[in-house]
Specification:
Layout (H helix, E strand, L loop, with lengths): L1 H4 L3 E4 L7 E4 L3 E3 L6 E3 L23 E3 L7 E3 H4 L3 E4 L7 E4 L3 E3 L7 E3 L22 E3 L7 E3 H4 L3 E4 L6 E4 L3 E3 L6 E3 L1 E4 L2 E4 L3 H7 L21 E3 L6 E3 L6 E4 L6 E4 L4 E3 L2 E3 L5 E3 L5 E3 L7 E8 L2 E7 L4 E2 L4 E2 L5 E4 L6 E4 L4 E4 L5 E4 L3 E4 L2 E4 L5 E2 L4 E2 L3 E4 L10 E7 L2 E7 L3 E3 L5 E3 L3 E5 L2 E5 L3 E3 L5 E3 L6 E4 L2 E4 L5 E3 L4 E3 L4 E5 L2 E5 L4 E4 L2 E4 L5 E5 L2 E5 L3 E5 L2 E4 L5 E5 L2 E5 L3 E4 L11 E3 L6 E5 L4 E5 L4 E3 L2 E3 L11 E6 L5 E6 L4 E3 L2 E4 L11
Parallel strand pairs: 39-40, 62-64
Antiparallel strand pairs: 1-2, 3-4, 5-6, 7-8, 9-10, 11-12, 13-14, 15-16, 17-18, 19-20, 21-22, 23-24, 25-26, 27-28, 29-30, 31-32, 33-34, 35-36, 37-38, 40-41, 42-43, 44-45, 46-47, 48-49, 50-51, 52-53, 54-55, 56-57, 58-59, 60-61, 62-63, 64-65, 66-67, 68-69, 70-71
Protein name: EGF-like domain-containing protein
InterPro entries: EGF, Furin_repeat, Growth_fac_rcpt_cys_sf, TKL_Ser/Thr_kinase
Organism: Entamoeba invadens IP1
Length: about 675
């Protein structure tokens, strides 16, 4: 069976040559091996002949390499400018890149758009999508464009890619309906003239001033009194520009405006108030031409007429001037004028208001008032004692008022006498709250109160106290004491006696008074502190160094007194001065050979020997050879380093452990030996 030779083989060669002649769908016989193999790589599945192997259809965008083959190639391999090609055996490009379109015969590859299309054509049909310069599309549109002249012999320039003329030959303009050329028309007013040429236009009307080489449908230059309208292209009268006399003939711009308007930005504008038309383009202030003139009218360019003067000037027909000294300015009718003054008034501002009165009168409430009774009258007031007079005579003094103001006959107190306060009703009242009030300002408060920033007295926190604010005290009352650092009143449980808010005696000896209150001594076991320093230590304690008390046992002391150690323990002798560290040794271990009971560092010698020993010049011994009588000789004493030191001694009759007790006649006892 064929399937035994090849599973995909349906019919085999009848000559037993082991060659498959028909394969299953999608396969073809191989001419070399005789077995079934797949169709070409880009052949549509099942589209190749199972006997011949010829491909009947390629996949999308692939085309047959040649006729009667099973191989397909891409469109771009077939033609570099081909985008889409036919998948059947026809080998045709269906759509090309921009600037190209498929041929309809021959090799059916892509060809360039016609040169008249300007590189713009349909990539499938080749119909022009635009035209190169100087060409317009055909009607109907084809694969080529025609010249402007072919489209219209009078057309010089067309709209790009359209069958519309933009610029015509001389004497013609584009017809916006037909998009071709018409004979030029010139519009004057409401009359329309049909002209046959530009030369005829120049001969028959003055509207068209300048003949150009080419013409559009808009007039560029108009006759005097007209300007070209951008919207309609027609000539429009200068009068259509508001307040314009003369305008430019080639643009909408006024050159000269009607008075009193000036030319600005192509239009006509009025001058600001207070100015007039000085030239066709400028305005200036009225007072620059007419002194003291506030507003004016323009008579003609550069000439003005004053309509209102600067107050208090009045226009007399030619200029602005001030009223005479015996006149006043009056504008009650709306027209400023000068009017003669009233009696007793030297200068009036108007009929009702006098500015300066004659002698013996002063101005009060704009009227002249007699100055009788004034201490020193001025222009507008009457000087009075302890009063400020404003347009008023002197008035009677208000009770308890130090200074008062009199205005138009009405008196008002400004400042009260000392210890009086001006109430809201303007009346001076005596006060009992403050310590001192002067000129309406409190300078102090009574005991137990303080002065606030609002110039009022508020209570301190405690009676009989002196404070600057509610919680800041200078002195405390009752049994409280003043904490000087915090400026606060507080209690002190260690204080025994308080005077004027300060503690003067503490309950315990180991407390001392510091900053007005009792503070515990910083030195432990101290019985008396003064100025934060211990002066006396407690019982059985010795002052070992500054601000340090030690137990007598620590320094080998047996018995103490108020002056120090009175008796050292056995084997120790007393020392009465500080050591090199500034501390008291009190008791120093005894050298057995020295037999010294009490040693003085100040004198650098022993001053008392142990019991049973005699002392001679600071040296202890049981007996001396010359115990009763001693000649002058060298002896040894102990220095601070327990070394021997030479010293002379005179005859002594009686000696014990404290030294010489009786001297011979003619000598006295030296306590140092």
């Amino acid at each position: 069976m064929c399937s035994t030779f090849d599973l995909n083989c349906e019919t085999c060669s009848v000559d037993s040559s082991r060659v498959c002649t028909t394969c299953r769908s999608g396969l073809r016989p191989n001419t070399t091996s005789g077995k079934c193999v797949g169709c070409g790589l880009h052949c549509v599945s099942g589209a190749c002949d199972p006997t011949s192997g010829i491909c009947n259809q390629c996949v999308t965008n692939y085309v047959f390499q040649s006729t009667n083959t099973d191989q397909c190639e891409s469109c771009s391999t077939f033609d570099a400018n081909c985008i889409t090609c036919a998948s059947d055996p026809t080998r045709k490009c269906k759509q090309c890149n921009t600037g190209y379109y498929p041929k309809t015969s021959g090799d059916y590859k892509c060809q360039s758009c016609d040169v008249t299309c300007g590189g713009k054509c349909d990539t499938t049909t080749g119909v022009c999508a635009g035209c190169q310069s100087g060409y317009v599309p055909t009607s109907p549109i084809t694969n080529k464009c025609v010249t402007y002249n072919t489209f219209d012999t009078n057309c010089v320039e067309c709209v790009d890619d359209k069958r519309e003329c933009a610029i015509c030959q001389s004497g013609m303009y584009p017809n916006n309906v037909k998009h071709s050329l018409s004979v030029m028309q010139v519009v004057l007013g409401n009359a329309t003239h049909q002209l046959v040429s530009a030369q005829a236009v120049l001969q028959t009307t003055s509207l068209l001033i300048r003949q150009e080489k080419y013409f559009s449908r808009k007039c560029k230059v108009c006759a005097n009194g007209f300007y070209p309208d951008d919207a309609s292209g027609k000539c429009v009268a200068c009068a259509t520009i508001t307040n314009c006399n003369t305008c430019s003939s080639d643009t909408k711009k006024c050159l000269a405006c009607k008075d009193p308007f000036i030319q600005k930005s192509g239009g006509c504008e009025s001058c600001p108030i207070g100015e007039y038309k000085f030239s066709e383009t400028t305005c200036i202030k009225c007072y620059n031409t007419i002194d003291n003139c506030n507003t004016c009218d323009t008579i003609s360019v550069g000439k003005a007429n004053c309509t209102a003067c600067i107050y208090p000037h009045v226009f007399n027909g030619t200029k602005c001037e001030l009223c005479q000294p015996n006149e006043y300015y009056d504008n009650t009718t709306g027209t400023p004028k000068c009017v003669k003054n009233d009696i007793n008034c030297d200068i009036l501002s108007n009929k009702e208001n006098c500015l300066d009165c004659s002698d013996t009168f002063f101005v009060s409430n704009s009227k002249c008032v007699s100055s009788g009774g004034c201490e020193s009258p001025t222009l507008t007031s009457c000087d009075c004692s302890d009063q400020i007079s404003i347009n008023s005579k002197c008035t009677s003094q208000i009770e308890h008022c130090k200074y008062q103001k009199s205005e138009k006959g009405v008196s008002t107190c400004i400042t009260c006498d000392d210890d009086n306060i001006l109430n809201y009703g303007g009346v001076c009242e005596q006060q009992s709250v403050y310590g001192l009030v002067r000129n309406g300002v409190a300078f102090g408060c009574k005991l137990g109160t303080y002065l606030t920033n609002q110039n009022t007295c508020d209570s301190c926190s405690g009676s009989n106290a002196v404070c600057t604010t509610q919680n800041k005290f200078l002195k405390c009352g009752d049994s409280t004491i003043l904490d000087i650092e915090q400026m606060a009143c507080t209690t002190d449980t260690q204080c025994n006696s308080v005077v004027d808010g300060l503690c003067v005696q503490c309950k315990e000896n180991d407390f001392e008074i510091s900053k007005g209150r009792c503070s515990k001594c910083e030195t432990e076991n101290c019985d008396l502190c003064v100025g934060r320093k211990c002066q006396i230590c407690k019982l059985n304690y010795l002052m070992y160094s500054a601000n340090r008390c030690v137990n007598k046992e620590q320094v080998n002391c047996e018995r103490i007194s108020k002056n120090g150690c009175a008796q050292c323990k056995a084997g120790y002798y007393q020392v009465d001065t500080n050591n090199i560290e500034g501390k008291y040794d009190f008791c120093t271990k005894t050298d057995v050979e020295l037999h010294c009971k009490y040693y003085s560092l100040n004198t650098t010698k022993c001053i008392e020997c142990q019991d049973g020993f005699n002392m001679k010049v600071g040296v202890c011994a049981e007996q001396f050879d010359d115990l009763n009588k001693v000649k002058t000789q060298n002896v040894s004493v102990i220095n601070k380093k327990n070394k021997l030191k030479s010293q002379e001694e005179i005859d002594c009759l009686t000696r014990n452990n404290k030294g010489c007790q009786r001297c011979p006649s003619g000598y006295y006892l030296n306590k140092n030996g």
